[in-house]
Structure formats: structure tokens, C-alpha cells
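Sample intake sheet
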Amino acid sequence: MSYLPVLLKWLPFGVLGALVAYVVVARPFDWQTVISHITDLPPILWAQLLGTFVLSYGARIGRWSLFTRAVGVAVPWWRNAVIYMAGFGLGLVLNKAGEAMRVLYLRPFGMSYANGVGAFLADRLLDVLVAGLLACLGIALFTGHSGGALMATGACLVVMWILRSSLAREWVRRLPLGRLASYAGEGMQAMSLLLSGRTLWTAGGLSAVVWCVQGSALYLTLVALGAPIEWHVAVAAYAIGLFAAAVVVLPGGLGAAEATIMLLLISKGIDKEAALVAAVLSRSVPQWAGILTGLLCLAVIGKASAQAPKDPEPVQIR
């Protein structure tokens, strides 16, 4: 019996457990100070954190609308926004698979499965690559090793080129998955067309806005706590935390991102109680605002379904 699958299944929880154990045991907190930090926060900060949610998710919606227009699917802007946000509500239960189910709500507007898969893949790939580029720059900032960061940045760009190549599409089509392999191959073809030309540059710019705005939530929280650091350092720490979250299967990388961000802030001289409050609030407020908005949008979709067009022919990318 091979123990490798079991090891891989429990590895993310082990990583999270090790981080939490280090934080709790090696760096005990003064919880009274933590509570004092939270209660002393100015009311304007909560408005600023919600503002980062609005701006970052607005940029996400703009990127998604760009992709749906690029594949020739005409959806009223408000409806497209509701469908996109509903994916985050589904993601609370189904993780990333929930976000992929947006294509089902776009079928009445003429979205084919292949184009829907392509738009989802393009959306997720740009998120990961731009966050990866910011994380590479952040690692150089925190460690001083710019050479390794440049190599990692080059690797991110190579990965994007490979995933957009015809070789990758052909390899996916040949997988023994029946019709599913065919859908995936067609989706990758749609993705490669979306991630090219002006669409790529516009969507990439919107992706950069997303992560810089969300990193700004960390910066604003530190300023409110009286422990400010440079804006670019806060964005770098946030981006590195995102990649720590990627190894944890819990929704949103629960715990791993916050622990990583906190340790990076401590390394920059921020006291551990302020670092804890900043890491948790800057992540949780925008993230849970997105999830709750997504759940609300799921309810709106059901009531508005009667306004959708009646079974148009799915649009295909040529």
C-alpha cells in the first residue's frame, strides 16, 4: 500500500499546523493588547477596508466582463456582476469548482461550455501569475536576493507561455478522460485567445489593480494601528501570504496566509500583536465581504432568471 496519497492529502494541514504552532508557542501573544488594538481602531478604517473590497472586486468584475465580451457573449453589466459574485458564494462550499459554475448561469446568454471554461481559466491564471510576480518581487524585497526573484519571475512567464501553447492543448485533448478532455482542450484554446493582444494587457492591468488594492488593506490597517510601513512592503507581504495560502485546501487558505503575513511584518519590526491584528483584519474583512455578497447574489440570480434571453445559440470562438 502506498502512503504517498495519504501524505499529500494531509500535507497542507501539516503546513498550517506547523505555522500555527510556531505562532502560538514560539511567539506568545498578549491577548489583552490584541483586544485593545482592535477596540482602539478608528471607525474610518472599517470604511476603508470595505472600500478596498469594492475596488478590488470591481476590478475583478471588469476583467470578467472583458472576457465575456471578447467571446461574443452579450450580458447586461449588472447581471454579469451578479453572476461573477455568485461564484464566490458557491466557492464557500465547492472552493474553486464553485467559481467555475458561473458558466452554467451564462448558458442562457449564449456562453458555450468551452468558452466558459476558457474564461474561467484565463481569470484564474491571470490572478495567480500577477500575484506570483508580486510575490517574487516581495521575496527579493524581504531577502535581498534579486537573482532568485528574477528567475522565479521568468518561470511564471514561461508557465503562462506553455499553458497558452498548442502543445499543451493537444496534450490535454489526448488525456483518457473522454468528452471531458475535449471540453478542457477547447477551453484552453479559448483561454489562449483571451490571453493575447489588447485583452491580455487590459486584463493584466486589472489583475494588478486587484492585488495592489487588497495589499493596500494591510497598509491601511497598519497605519491605523500606528505601525506604518512602506506601501510596497505591505503589498509584497500580502502577495507572499497569498502563495502560502495556496498550499492549504481550506477555503481562502484559511490561517496560512495570515500567519505568513504576520511573520513577515514581525521581521520588519512590527510588534507581534499589531502584526496579528493587521494580518487578520486586512484579509478577513474584504474576503468575507466578498463571500457574503456572493451568497446574496445567489439569491438574486434566482429572482432575476426570468429576464434572461430564451436559449440562444452558444457562441463559439474561431
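Comment: Confidence is low (pLDDT under 50) at residues 1-13. Residues 272-304 form the longest helix (33 residues).
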